[in-house]
TRAP transporter large permease protein (Thalassospira profundimaris), 463 residues
Amino acid sequence: MGNFYIEDWFPLIMFASLGILVFTGLPVAFVISGIGIAFGFLGMAYDVFSFIEFFNIVSRIWGGISENMVMVAVPMFIYMGTMLEKSGVAEDLLECLNMLLRKVPGGLALSVTLMGTIMAATTGIIGASVVMMTLLALPVMMRRNYDPSLATGTIAASGTLGILIPPSIMLVLMSDLLSVSVGNLFLAAIIPGLLLASLYTVYIFVRCQINPSLAPPLPEGEAVHGMELVKMMLRSFLPPVFLIVLVLGSIFAGFATPTEAAGVGAVGSTFLALVKGRLKWPVLKDVCERSALTGAMLFFLFAGATVFSYVFRSLGGDDLVIDLVDSAGLGPWGILLLLMLIVFILGFFFDWVEITLIVLPIFAPVIAQLDFGHHLDIGGIDATEAQVLTWFAVLVAVNLQTSFLTPPFGFALFYLKGVAPKSITIQQIYKGIIPFVLLQVLGLLLVMYFPELALWMPNTFLE
């Protein structure tokens, strides 16, 4: 009975242990790997796990994560985004966008959304994006008597776009976990990412059109006109946009791998800082330190997740998940909706890294085998397993973006509150993000109902 119990239910106990220990405040990488090692030894006591299998974990870490050339792109993308932030490129970009949209209802809020979209295409570091935009935009919005909830909601939602819009670190990680081309994932996420940004833009414009007092316009005396505006665009708008086109365009055109393009981005961001005269030693030192620490944290998490997932599978976790799904009696759509609901609920309590590293390896094999009929047939061609996984990955990515905005552990809310003026209350922040979370759910449903939004670009590119 003992062996039967462990073989069938040990994986569930692992999940429960993970859920409890994450709340202790211990580093997540230690928690994930520690649980894996501990349950490996417990499995040995019940003869369902052998000591020699620990050596397989080592080979998976060194032969998988450490030798994966795509993963080299992660620290370079982090460097690129951090350099653009620290060198003042982002600050100049926001000022330029504000001048261009000064006569549009909610112009400054729309500028923040556009800057979030552009900066999302430089880095997937949500904390850096939210903190940077809070420091740059929130004081200005408050001085212009913007509604605090609208201001904070716009900043928090726009700052999280980097998790979805390429080159996203999360998509690089997903491509490795699902064995899907990172280039295809990047292509698949572009339209859904722009769709979310468009939903934000329409919402802000319509709401400010109905109630202009929420977002008073820029005083005409502060506006820039004529050649000064043209110079501002040439100086502040075109360089970061050109860098993004260079990086993403080289990937999509097939001229460079994501790793090579990340190197181009890192060099390009450094060059922009040099041209602006802001490439000082303290800036360079700070950027390198932050990039190294963030990269080390992520790779430690990758290694810990490898330990957890290997032990989980060795103890029969895959079979347990499949049995539970089969016993539920749900069809393909029921299973997909259930998984999306699980990811959404987990987003209230866990970071995207933990959810991605734990959920994807377990549920992806289940999704890959599901038959969605002709729903995924783009252009009359039956969807391949890789296309199903690509669509699923984009759905999870859109879903996980909400994890940054949903209390009690919405990290974007913590970042924002940490650097916002003391006059901004957490209640105002919570009130502000509700419409944007609903817009993200709408975006998720649209991508689910219209898979072409995710699959059209990869299919067109492959042709």
The chain has a mean pLDDT of 81. The two ends are 55 Å apart (CA to CA). The chain has one domain: 9-462.
